[in-house]
Amino acid sequence: MVDFHQNGNITTLHNLRTRSLEEMNYELETFAQSRKISLILPCLYSELETEAMPNIVAELSKVRYLHRIVVGLDRADEAQFRHAQKFFKDLNQNHVVIWNDSPRMKALGARLEAMGLAPTEQGKGKNVWSSLGYLMSCEDSSVMAIHDCDILTYTNELLARLVYPVANPNFPYQVAKGFYARVGQDRLNGRVTRLLVSPLLIALKRVIGDRDYIDYLRSFRYPLSGEFAMRTSILPDLRIPSDWGLEIGVLSEAWRNLAPKAVCQVEIADSYDHKHQELSPEDAEAGLNRMSVDICKSIFRKLAADGTVFTTNVFRTLKATYYRSALDLLEAYYADAKMNGLSIDRHSEERSIELFAENIMRAGQFFLDNPHETPFIPTWSRVHAADPAFLRDMHAAAAQDTAEFQ
Fold first, then answer.
1. What is the side-by-side order of every strand in the sheet holding 175-180?
2. Which DSSP state fits 81?
3. Is-contact 199 115, C-beta < 8 A?
4. pLDDT under 50: residue ranges of the chain
5. What pLDDT is recorded for position 371?
C-alpha cells in the first residue's frame, strides 16, 4: 500500500519500501539497551496445533531486541500446559507461559471475585488483561506489543514495524495500531471492518452528526486489527473490555486518555491472513454474529459516554442508513477486488450486511435495556488499590506453575 496520505487526525506511518529490515532491527536493538521491549501473545492451546504458531515461534527466535515474551495460555489442561512449555522452549528471549486455567490462577481469580473485581467472562480480553498484569509485575519494560497467534503470513518484520513508533524515544507516540490489507487466498477479506465498522461509522455521522470520536475511529485503516504497541506507563489505567469489543475498546481508551498526536497507525505487512471466523447466523453467541453485536455496543457506549442520546427511533434510522451505506461500499469493494484479480462473493457479502443490520438493532436494544452495563475489566490501578499484594502474588503463581509442571 505505497502512499503517503495523512488523514489529519492521527499520524499514519507507511511502508514506503525504502528501508531494510536489518537497518530497522539494528536501531531497535539500540533503543532496547535503555528501553526494554516486551511482547504479549494471547493464545488458545488449540492455536499451538495450527500451522501458524510454529512459524511465529521460528520468526520470533530471530529477534534480538525483545527483552521478554509473555504467552497467555487459555483453555489448556495440565498435560497441554506441559506441552506448551516445550513448544515455546526454542524462543531465545526470556519468556513465560502463563497457564490461565491453573489451580493457582483460579484461586487468584476467586480472590478478585470476592472483591468484585473479577472479569465477567472468559476470552481474549481477560487473557490480555491478565498478561498485562503479569508484565507490570515484572517492572522492567518500557514498551510492549501484542499480536495475534493465528497469523499465517507472519514475519518478524511485522513486529519490528509495530513496535518502532513507540520504541523510538524521539517520537511522541504512546500507542501504535497496526494496519494492513486483508488479502489472502485470492480473496478480499476483513468482512467485519469492511461491511460493518466502516459503513456503521458513516451512518453514525449522518444520523447523529459530527463527532470527534467518529472522525477519530474513521481515521484508522484497520480498526479491528489485533496488533498494537504501547508505552507501558499507560497500562495501569487502561480499561480492557471483556467481550469482542477489545480492539475498539483499546482505541477508545487511547482517545480517552491521550492526545491525538500521541496515537499513530503503522503499516506492518504487505499481506496478512489468519483464521477466519464463521458468520454463524444461526447462533447469536458465536462467530461474527456475536462479534458484530459486541463491537456495536462498544461504539454506542463510548458515544453515550460523550453525551450522545440514543433512542429506539435513532437505532431504527441508524439501521436503515447503515444498510444503504454498506451496499454502496460493497460496490466499491467489488470493483477494487475485480481490478486486482481477487474474488468476492456478493451474495455472501450481502447476507453479512443483512445480519449486521439486524445486529445494530439488537445491540441498540441491549444498550437501552441495560444502561448500567459495565463490561470493562477493572483497571490494574484499581486492583492494586484494593489488594496491593495481588500483582506480586500473580507473578509468584506463574513462577510456581512453571517450576512444578516443567
1. 11-13, 263-269, 175-180, 228-231, 143-146, 37-44, 66-74, 94-99
2. H
3. no
4. none
5. 75
Comparing C-alpha atoms, which of 1, 6, 2, 13 is closest to residue 172?
A: 13
**Going by C-beta distance under 8 Å and a sequence separation of 6 or more, which residues neighbour residue 67?**
32, 36, 37, 38, 93, 94, 140, 141
Residue (of 105, 43, 38, 119) closest to 396 by Cα position:
105
Which residues share a beta bridge with 35?
Answer: none
What contacts 174, CB < 8 A, 6 or more positions away? Answer: 166, 230, 231, 233, 234, 254, 258, 262, 263
Q: Is-contact 339 270, C-beta < 8 A?
A: no
**Which residue is associated with the grid cell 523510538?**
168
Torsion sign, CA atoms 196, 199, 205, 208:
negative
| SS3 at position 71 | strand
Q: Residues 6 or more apart from 274 whose CB is under 8 A from it?
A: 52, 148, 150, 151, 152, 153
What cell numbers appear for 396 in the block?
509468584
Predicted TM-score (pTM) of this structure:
0.94
Whole-number pLDDT of residue 183: 84
| Contact (CB, 8 A) for 143 and 36 | yes
